[in-house]
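The instructor's notes for this session suggest beginning with a concrete chain rather than abstract definitions. Hand out the sequence below and ask the class to guess, before any prediction is shown, which regions might be ordered.
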Amino acid sequence: MKKLYFICLTLLPFLLFSQKQTNEWTVVATYEIPGKAGGITFDGEFLYSGLYSSPGDDNRIFKIDPTDGSYELLCYAPIEDALGLSFDGTYFWSTDRQGSYDPALAVQFDEDGNFISEFELPATYFSGIEYMEDGTFWATCYYDPDGTAFHLDNQGNVLDQFTTPNNQPWAICKMDEHLWIADYDADMLYLVDVTGQVIESHESIGIKPTGVVFDGTYLWYVTGPSQSNSTLYKVDLGGSGNPILD
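After discussion, reveal the predicted structure:
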């Protein structure tokens, strides 16, 4: 009897972790948004998305109404591509790659596209960025080093880091004390703690997720490999699990 009790206690953490891994969610709405969307963020009322590798101006930032998916051009940001996007309560932040060998930049700008500030990131191939309430950032690197999330201060100094669940972490956002990571090549979204331990994992509907944000109630993510339009998904994290919205 004692042996059985010991086995049950040993397996309990695994069983609990497995349950977290298989939590269902429900996509409750989908919307088309412009171009190859890169990054998505939320200001408490509206969603915002940028572009990368799209025809025309990749530095366009779009304002999106979450009630119906309608959008309008917000500004032309002082960046080349919006590989990531975050909002700090007043200003926007994006990651901007300057060249094949130069460090990427975290660039701060206002809603009119005016440059505010910038700092260097610790590598070249950064994509996702998320501003934290304490003034620090999480940012994701998808190459050299492959699949790494960095916790940074507002000067770009590394406070902590962890290896992400897959090698192409394109987007990152906070949800309470945890982080969501969208992986571009794996077509997956992961909820992780700040050490990188996976809490939940979900397959993306649509390939190549490039942005993710939690609005306090719903999770939003975007897939955007098309040269024409991307798809924005609104997710009920406590849903019953219908995997595809008709």
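Then share the key points. The first strand starts at residue 26 and ends at 34. The CA atoms of residues 89 and 104 lie 23 Å apart.
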